[in-house]
Amino acid sequence: METQAAKEQALCEFAEYPFTSDEIFQQGLIQILAHSSSQSTSEEEQSEMTLKTQLFYFNRQMGRDLTLEDVKGFPLTTPDLHPTVPQPVELLETQPQDHSPRILSFAELKDLIESGNTENVPHNKHIPDQLNERIPSQSNAPLRKKPWEVTSLLS
């Protein structure tokens, strides 16, 4: 069982954890909030969802076992603990983007395919509708023995 001092230490670590600069957390949070925003949740519900996401991520990354009640009952001194919903989205949009393609939602992918803009689908390879025109290579593998030839050699 965790002592009170250890729990307070874990809560302090949680309060100081750099959620806003953790790119993996930000990407996951955006996906979670995008899904929850499609269900027309209020600001308060999205703030609660953000806190739950932070708590889950922190527990997984740091190997802690904090609960939502622990975090809500702890006097927070860090303003980043309960960020507003647009903050992570703006943070990711202002970061310099590398040239990796962004992840499309299913609806975006469907729209691109239906409109015929398959060249805008990430990792989509164009495969020509023709056969390979090169001369086929000769096989270098030895012929495989048939089962009765193998057994006759062992006898």
What secondary-structure arrangement, pairings included, does this model have?
Elements: H1 4-16, H2 23-37, H3 43-62, H4 68-73, H5 86-94, H6 106-115, H7 147-154
Helix pairs in contact: 2-3, 2-5
Commentary on this structure:
The chain is mainly α and 155 residues long. The chain has helices spanning 4-16, 23-37, 43-62, 68-73, 86-94, 106-115, 147-154. The longest helix has 20 residues, at 43-62. The radius of gyration is 27 Å and the shape is elongated. It starts with a helix and ends with a helix.
Short characterization:
This protein is mainly α and 155 residues long.
Structural key phrases:
single chain; 155 residues; mainly alpha; 7 helices; 52% helix; 0% strand; elongated
